[in-house]
Design brief:
The structure is a single chain. The chain is α+β, with helices and mostly antiparallel strands and 182 residues long. It has a single domain, classed as Jelly Rolls (Sandwich), CATH 2.60.120. Helices cover 39% and strands 25% of the residues. It contains five helices and six strands. α2 crosses α3. The termini are far apart. 19% of the residues are buried.
């Protein structure tokens, strides 16, 4: 029920921003991504202009654990499993992302190696957003950068709150490390 309410609210929000002919299908998609909430149509168009379309086949990896974090990905269509190695080195699914989901948000904050893998389960179309492109764009529009990083901080904070209680319940908090201060 909460998901349906969120979808209706989001749809109403997006539809309220669309005026005849103002937004392409890609810009409309970007407008549905919560990280871009609060951005103007002009800002959404600028973000859309730096996205890189990618198509993946089932079984293909978008990225693997240990790879550099230089981009995040927005799933336009398809299904992606998020995997972490267990104590035996076997990949175990901990989450999924479908249409409208995004993967790798922490890659927009730093260049630490990926701590999980993203494996495509069915043919998937996604858009990559590279940190370097985004930073260049934000140099010209700091307000847009503030909006984006505010939303990203909210998302990462929410994800942390959702993860920590689960880790504590399973007794696996020893695996949680604070970032080093460098």
């Amino acid at each position: 029920m909460a998901d349906l309410l969120r979808e209706r609210t989001l749809l109403g929000h997006v539809m309220g921003r669309i005026k005849a002919g103002q937004m392409s299908p890609l810009v409309e998609f970007v407008a549905t991504v919560p990280l871009f909430d609060g951005m103007t149509i002009r800002q959404l168009k600028r973000i859309s202009g730096i996205l890189h379309e990618r198509e993946y086949s089932g079984g293909e990896y978008i990225f693997e654990s240990g790879m550099p974090s230089a981009a995040m990905f927005f799933v336009y269509s398809g299904l992606v499993h998020l995997l972490m190695p267990n104590e035996h080195g076997e990949e175990v699914e901990f989450d999924r992302r479908g249409s409208g989901g995004f993967i790798g948000g922490s890659g927009m904050v730093d260049d630490a190696p990926r701590w999980f893998s993203a494996k495509v389960i069915e043919p998937t179309r996604a858009f990559a957003l590279f940190r370097a492109d985004l930073q260049e764009l934000f140099e010209h529009d700091p307000e847009m950068g503030m909006k984006f990083y505010n939303q990203l901080a909210r998302f990462l904070s929410w994800r942390l709150r959702e993860t920590i209680p689960d880790s504590m319940a399973t007794g696996s908090t020893s695996d949680i490390e604070a970032p080093s201060r460098g």
